[in-house]
Fold this sequence. Notes:
By secondary structure, this protein is an all-alpha fold. Helix content is 70%, strand content 3%.
Amino acid sequence: MVEVGSNEDDLEENYMEFMSTKDNLRRAGHAKHIKNSDADQYLPKMYKFQKCKISSSVFKLVNHIYETLVAAGEAFNPEVPDGGMQSATIFETARNIVTMFVKIAPIHHKTAISTVPQIAAVFYNNCYYICHRLMTAGFDAELLMTKNQGKIPRSRLNFVEFFGPLRKLAAGVLEQHLANCRRQISTILSDVFVGLREEARHKKTAKTLLSVKMQLEQIATVWREVLTDSVYADSMGNIISHVLVTLASIVVSKEDITSHDAELTATLLQQFLTDMESLMKIQGYTLIHRVCEKSYYKMKEIIFCVNGSIQSISDRWCEGKGPLAQWVSADHVRRLIRALFQNTDRRAAVLSLIH
């Protein structure tokens, strides 16, 4: 793999800084840097690519497209009748390379993309890197063409129609992999938190949650190395949110939760939630409360209910204005109360307040 991109600066670039960088780039000549993986550091901020990793083959492919564009510019001779024919033919070759990638690459790597986290992440980056370089292809090629006294109409240095398909392909590939991950995890979690009073069932539930945690850690380890921070956060957040929603659904669907089961359930869920917070740490700060806001806070409220008294649940509901009411529906709160507490007048009174 090849590490590309350089934009880790979030500060906004003003117009004067943009023009200064652009002028310096023209004077220095971007062409001599374009084949290097750190070429983006010479571009204005708005053109820089976020730091990530792509496959070495795609890095070579994009450089080959650039060389083809330069060859198209050098082949253009306005003094010869139909002098643009050869140039146009070479330029169409560059466009055909991109078309073949969009049509063939996802089919050729279909199995690996859907099953291997690293391949899915790299393919996602590949698509966006190609798109990024195609955006600046005209500018890059124009610099070298001008230097070599070659010309080609700017309208021909245009790959706009590929931007949409490449982005759609990248999004589709990553979403397909995320869907497979969600499906696998749902299958693993199908029978947890059942009969925890039995030591064997308790151990099985703990082992299942540990298995899910380890699977997510493996995915996170790979994706941290490959994806940008923002894409990593969104992708991991998607899976973690699904896991938390699944666990929440399992707990609220229980018709009877003994005090012993409730204590063990709260302990297991709290430990799992803490582990998920660690997985969502980026640059020392956890983003789980932002990326997985609804599922994260709903799980915290469910843990509070499972671990609390009927009075504390009533107080936290606070006539539909408390944090419990904000994140957990009235129907789910009533289900939890019925499962956790015996049928008494006090329970009936609290249930009548939750609507």
